[in-house]
Amino acid sequence: PKTPVTDETIVDITYDEKCQLNGIFHFLTEKTGGVNLHNSSVVKVETNSYQQNDERFHPSHLFDPTNKENKSNDYRSDDIDGTFVSFDFGEMRVSISKYVIESSHKKVRSHPKNWIVEGKNEEEGEIWEEIDQQTDNSELNGSGLTVAFQPSHPNENFYRFVRIRQTGNSWYHVKNKCKVCFCQVEFFGKIINDSSALADSH
Length: 202
Prior knowledge:
four-stranded antiparallel β-sheet; five-stranded antiparallel β-sheet; 3 helices; disordered N terminus; about 10% helix
């Protein structure tokens, strides 16, 4: 089921190529005092795999404000099929018009190659709706690359959950073909900004 837009405050956060990582996560981070959104439970991040369960590779680094500046941490998965990172916006809802992925700044080869971005509203039972799909994409196959993607299946639906799911191999062709690694993620579009959810984070 779609979330109806009533009289909540809707904020439109548009993409600016000069500030490629100043999107919805940046907006929420500033609203909540500059802390990591996952640690403060404003946006909860889940994954089915991060490398050897080592916190250095947890997906919460993907929007961490410190990591945004120093690029010291990456999200890294183990070598499994169908790796995903899911963002739960809680009482808020987002509509995605563009998104940005930044590749690792380290000497790794497991850059993203095949993935899908999808959204839904219910925790259980609801089918994910496709927002974008990339196949054999080489734009992130290198160190420290920041690329903006326009959804291939654009819509104006609002979602509680948005996830990035790997649909094939990464660019690591020698071994560990499903292992994937990237540094930052940012979404652009509209957010139904529930002020009570933001207040509860303090």
